[in-house]
Design goal:
- The chain is mainly alpha-helical.
- It folds into two domains: 123 residues, no CATH class; 43 residues, no CATH class.
- Helices cover 53% and strands 3% of the residues.
- It is built from seven helices and two strands; from the N terminus they run H-H-H-H-H-H-H-E-E.
- The chain has a two-stranded antiparallel ribbon.
- Helix 1 runs antiparallel to helix 6 and helix 2 packs antiparallel against helix 4.
- The longest helix is centred in the N-terminal third of the chain and has 24 residues.
- The chain is globular, with a radius of gyration of 20 Å.
- It comes from Streptomyces purpureus.
- Keywords: Membrane, Transmembrane, Transmembrane helix.
- This is Membrane protein.
């Protein structure tokens, strides 16, 4: 939302997903308009490499883990492979080495689809690898998504120079 409030309400999250859905529709439209020019083995390789490296290893480790905890490397792999920056480098390298082609559109289709259709963004280490509600987030959203900022008590100086609402500190999950 902004540099001081690193969280989303259900409404702002849906609006963000909607923006990625628009990107998905644009990329898919261009892809469909040029189906006869797509090299399918390239499209399949570029679409699949993101999840083969970034999702499947972590998903398997998560399913095999008795308590759902997995090493951070799986989160790093997921976030790296599902990064628009990383995949821009992949597409850029492909264009430099091989040349531009319509199959490259599967990369934004994959990433925009993950974000727009499934709501999957980068994964912090503090959430389960496979989506499930985090108690602290659910608790904070109970207040955050329903109580406007102006309804809170006046801010008072907090630790580390931060300002926090009276009686509502980090232990309530409302201040980073």
């Amino acid at each position: 939302m902004d540099a001081h409030n690193l969280c989303q309400t259900p409404t702002t999250y849906r609006l963000l997903r909607l923006e990625y859905l628009v990107g998905l529709l644009v990329a898919a439209g261009f892809f469909l308009a040029h189906l006869d020019e797509v090299r399918w083995w390239v499209a399949l390789l570029l679409f699949a490499h993101i999840d083969l490296i970034g999702y499947l290893p972590g998903a398997l480790a998560h399913r095999r883990s008795p308590d759902g905890r997995i090493p951070r490397v799986y989160y790093v792999l997921y976030n790296t492979m599902h990064s628009l920056l990383t995949q821009a480098l992949v597409v850029g390298a492909w264009m430099w080495l091989v040349g531009p082609e319509w199959a490259l559109l599967v990369v934004p289709i994959h990433l925009f689809g993950d974000r727009g259709l499934f709501g999957n963004f980068v994964k912090p280490f503090t959430v389960a690898f496979e989506p499930r509600p985090h108690p602290a987030v659910q608790s904070a959203l109970a207040d955050f998504a329903t109580v406007p900022w102006h309804a809170w008590p006046p801010a008072e100086p907090g630790r580390d120079g931060q300002r926090m609402a009276a009686g509502r500190g980090p232990e309530h999950g409302l201040v980073p």
